[in-house]
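DM from R.C. (forwarded with permission)

"hey, sorry to bug you on a friday — could you get me a structure for this? deadline for the figure draft is monday and I only need the backbone to look sensible"
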Amino acid sequence: MIYIIIIVGLILDYGTKLWALDRLKGQADITIIEGFFDLSYLENRGAAFGIFQGQVYFLAVVTSIIMAVLFIAYLKAKKRTMLLTVSTGMILTGAVGNLIDRLTYGFVVDFISWHWKDTYYFPTFNVADIFITLGTGLLILYILKEVD
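My reply, with the result:
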């Protein structure tokens, strides 16, 4: 099951990034909801929130180590519940998707832009980031359930 999650997730992530490279790079933003949601091409040369700018190989090594630790922990888990499988699969999907970008382009393709009019802009992100965020939330939920 975890492999299906990863494969389907990577197809979604890679497909949307190819679309962004083809349709958004060098073009004006596409407004989906005025003052709230745009599709806007961005080359992220760092990590979350712009930290570690230009540190491609450092980020690739750190990402690979974290992925290996997470996958080994998953394999060694006494109870591999659906929640653990989905959360781990989602985190690994996002990590692999962004790692592929980093190693292929030297940056991560981001294109989803949420904002409040022109007063607040959340950092631009991509489908892999959504997988990582949701997967982390589900993993926290799994851990909290297991503690009880």
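R.C.: lifesaver. Strands lie at 30-33, 37-44, 108-116, 120-121.
me: no worries. The first strand starts at residue 30 and ends at 33.
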